[in-house]
Structures are given as structure tokens and as C-alpha cells.
Amino acid sequence: MSEENKKWVVILIGPPGSGKGTQAEMLAEKFGLVHLESSKVIEEKIKNADPENQTLLEEKRKWESGQLNTPKLVRRWIIEKIEELALLGKSIVFSGSPRTIFEAEGEISELERSYGKENIKVIHLDLGEHGSVKRNSSRRICEKNRHPIPNFPEYENITQCPKDGSGIIRRVLDNLETVKVRYQVYLKETKPVLDLFEDKGYRIIEINADQFIEKVFKDILEQLDDKN
Ligand SMILES: [Zn+2]
Description:
This is Adenylate kinase. It catalyses: AMP + ATP = 2 ADP. Helix 2 packs across helix 4, helix 4 packs parallel to helix 5 (101-115) and helix 6 (129-136) packs across helix 7 (176-190). This protein is α/β, with parallel strands linked by helices. It contains nine helices and eight strands. It has a domain at 9-129 and 190-227: P-loop containing nucleotide triphosphate hydrolases (Rossmann fold, 3-Layer(aba) Sandwich). Bound molecules: zinc ion. Zinc ion binds at residues 142, 144-145, 147, 161, 163-164, 166.
């Protein structure tokens, strides 16, 4: 981490409410990493969709109606984004990708090719179902850039995003049943990605995410240091 010009990658994997977005923002700020979010990659692609491009229009329709975008396309777009950032010499932190084994398999090869296996750090933000449900029952994000507003006492009464001053909205899908389903989807679809990394010889950095933001961040920094 101390070598200024070394390109590296951090991948944060954890259930909804584990603070991936928050920790990714903090890491991005501290180390000058690009925070790569698949939702933003998708938005960027469909925002200026050519009216002649039926495939993109269909993806735009899915996006606007809240349906999942085609995994094959999302994976390709993310891989293209990785190539683009690698060419610019940027380091990356991922907070919502890979979400599935399918995404991971494509992304890992591209990341290893562009960054080298030894420069890829995989962090598991461990949080049980109870914690995930509790955190998500009041999940808030900012209007302008969708910065997650952490669900901690120090943020309880704020009305503006600390980063850009925009208003704060509550995500409507976060009712109890939805949150429980999302946790199960995480266990089934995303958590196996950690096993895939292990099978490929990575050491997973295990972090207890059921702690205050600053403590989680401190644990991450310590573990990243230990590795170098
Ligand atoms: Zn914001």
C-alpha cells in the first residue's frame, strides 16, 4: 500500500447492511481508489442509450421497472470498465460486485490479467441475518449520489448528505420480508464467491462487520497492513 504507484484492487463482499458501500467510500478516500459500483456502471451504459439499439433499450426498460439486468451484459460492462480503469492506471475498490459466481469468474480473470493476483485483496464483511435485517430496516441513501447513510447513532438525525449536502431518501424496498429475502439471496448467490476466491488460492480477510464504522475500518486497515 505504501508504494504510491502500485495499482491494486480491493473487493468487499458482505450481506446487505454490512457497510460495504460505506467502507468502500472510506477506502476510496484514504487510498485514492475508484469506487466501482455495478449500479453506476449500468446507469452509465443505459443513460445515453442509442434509440436504435434495441438491446440497450430493453435493459433500460428493465432498469427503470426495477428488474435485474441481463447478467451476461452486466458482467461484460463491468469487465470493460475494469479494462478502462486499468489502462488509466487506477486502483479500484468494489462494493457490490461480483454478486454471483458467474460475474466473479469473468471479473477475476480480467483483474488478474490487469492487476496481478498478488495485488487483489478480498475482504469478507461478516454479518449475520439478525444484524443485516436490523441495519436494513432503516436504510437511507442520499438523493444526488446515492451515498449510503450509515445506520449508526451519529447519523440518526442528519437531514443532508455529509458528502454532498443533498437530501436523504429512504429506499422503499427495505421492508422486513424483502430484507430477509435479500439476505437469503446473498447466502445462496454471493457468499459462494468467497469460496471461489479461496479455491483460487486467495486468503480472505475476515472482518466482523457488526461493529461501529470506524472500528470496522480500523480492522480493515490493520489487516491490509499485515498482508504487505
Ligand atoms: Zn451524497
